[in-house]
Design a protein that fits this description.
disordered C terminus, Growth Hormone, Chain: A, globular
């Protein structure tokens, strides 16, 4: 939630100092964003190595996201208390330490704890990298600075699955965390050398401790409920009911406290503005849908289609190619085009991509699966910048930071919730399809009878024949379940289109702060 206002009014950097400063800040951002996607294709390997199910393995993603979401609103307070440069340096170094601990984790519980720690200490890194970068450039070049920064945040998700897959297949999954250490140490060293003389003034400001505690309680309880629901049979379990009650009551108390406190950790009064709540909610729901499907696809490819982690990464990697090319164009033209039109176009493309995926079958080849991923990059380019422009439109400069922090909190939390819901629905629908398909596997069904007979003639024992049939049914069940998730997600993206048109029309160039808030 820090902005350029958090730093003193210093002259911009010049020459090599500005180049190296940009590289260091971008490297830190790259490392941070990379860790939101690098584990996606490694989940089966991590889950298998640590002896848990793939669904439990998704905690590796959601624990990072939830802890990161909780930390984001604290950035403003921490910046004023310790200064942006010291806080940024501390955040990078703690991120390196927590990455090292993630690689050493002996079991899933420990890994989840260290991933949550990693997500929490990463909270200030992205907003502060924006702050320091904007202070390094003249105001006239703020747009250029943010365009360069944005490309970094788009390249990282492209590299994440590819790099994660290659490391998992050729070295071992702990190295997806260890690679952060040299990058982080180098970025911290360069940053300290260039920016230590540009530290901002610090002052003691009150922190909303009660609000923060309530935030941790309700978000944590909600995520635990979503992640443990499948394992504990949802609301048939007293534990799940207890978590649901804690989440709802915690949220209620959080809302009441934040609306009445003088120094709230989250400025909920922003929701009184129509453009803010429509933009923030459209961004959160859209991102939750997007991220949930991004997690399911590599899981399905590796568990039921025989893809290696590297191959799954190659399928996921092209998602950022069109985004990298088109994002600068969107940034340049956003002042001349109604952002609602761009957002509508993004939702339509997302819907088309997911509809294409809902038509997949177990015979789909590499290129058939990759093409929708490539097209999805177009939607990404037209998704973030227009919706953030809409969300922050009409706000005075002194409220941009709070609005950006709150909308990012909603987006990150929605990503974690979307992951939990998507994986749970996927497994539930697979169980339903499995039961239906098994009913037709009998000697009265000619296809089933021929398959059983063919396997028997190939030398399989009766038990082996049943095992092979069950494997085929499993593959078909999870394929059909993935189709269901993709199809419903496509419909939900279409439903977001009229929602975004509830916002008031806005035109005019997006501020540098608005552009920064896009990520």
């Amino acid at each position: 939630m820090a902005t350029a206002a958090s730093t003193p009014d210093l002259p911009p950097l010049e020459g090599a100092a500005r180049v190296w400063g940009t590289i260091a800040l971008s490297a830190a951002t790259f490392m941070n964003v990379l860790d939101t996607s690098i584990a996606n294709v490694s989940l089966p390997a991590i889950a298998g190595d640590l002896g848990v199910s793939a669904t439990q393995g998704t905690w590796v993603i959601t624990s990072f996201a939830v802890a990161n979401a909780i930390a984001v609103p604290l950035t403003g307070w921490l910046t004023q208390r310790f200064g942006p440069v010291r806080l940024f340096m501390t955040s990078i170094l703690l991120f390196c330490i927590s990455s090292w601990l993630c690689g050493l984790a002996p079991n899933m519980t420990t890994l989840i704890i260290f991933r949550a720690m990693q997500g929490f200490v990463a909270g200030p890194m992205i907003p502060l990298s924006q702050t320091l970068l904007l202070s390094s450039y003249p105001r006239t070049k703020a747009g250029l600075a943010m365009a360069m920064w944005s490309i970094t945040t788009l390249v990282a998700p492209v590299m994440g699955p590819l790099l994660g897959g290659w490391i998992t297949d050729n070295i071992s999954w702990p190295w997806i965390f260890y690679i952060n250490i040299p990058v982080g140490v180098l970025a911290a060293s360069i940053t300290w050398g260039i920016y230590r003389s540009r530290e901002g003034a610090t002052r003691k400001v009150p922190i909303d401790g009660v609000g923060l505690a309530l935030l941790v309680v309700w978000v944590g309880a909600m995520q635990l409920m979503l992640d443990k629901g499948k394992e504990l049979d949802w609301f048939h379990s007293p534990a799940i009911i207890a978590m649901a009650v804690v989440a709802v009551v915690g949220l209620a108390f959080f809302l009441i406290w934040e609306l009445t406190d003088k120094h709230p950790v989250v400025d909920l009064s922003l929701f009184a503005r129509r453009n803010f709540w429509t933009g923030a909610l459209a961004t959160a729901v859209g991102y939750g849908l997007f991220f949930g499907n991004v997690v399911i696809l590599p899981l399905w490819l590796q568990k039921y289609m025989g893809y290696t982690a590297t191959q799954a990464g190659m399928i996921m990697a092209p998602v950022g190619l069109f985004a990298i090319v088109l994002s600068p164009i969107v940034g340049i033209t956003i002042g001349k085009v109604d952002p609602r039109r761009y957002a509508t176009f993004a939702f339509l493309i997302f819907a088309v991509v997911l509809w294409m995926r809902s038509r997949f079958n177990t015979d789909a080849d590499f290129w058939t699966i990759m093409i929708p991923t490539l097209i999805q990059g177009v939607a990404m380019a037209f998704f973030f910048i227009p919706l953030v422009t809409l969300t922050l439109s009409g706000l005075p400069p002194d409220r941009i930071a709070a609005a950006s922090g709150l909308s990012n909190f909603a987006r990150i939390t929605a990503g974690a919730v979307g992951t939990s819901i998507a994986t749970t629905v996927w497994e539930d629908r697979a169980a339903m399809h499995h039961a239906q398909l098994v009913e037709s596997v009998n000697l009265g069904n000619s296809a089933a009878a021929n398959a059983i007979s063919g396997l028997g003639k190939s030398g399989f024992s009766p038990e082996q024949v049943l095992g092979q049939i069950n494997r085929i049914v499993d593959q078909q069940s999870f394929m059909l379940a993935a189709n269901d998730v993709f199809y419903v997600s496509a419909l939900l993206f279409l439903l977001l289109i009229p929602f975004v048109w509830l916002a008031k029309p806005t035109r005019g160039p997006a501020s540098a702060d608005a552009a920064a808030g896009a990520h």
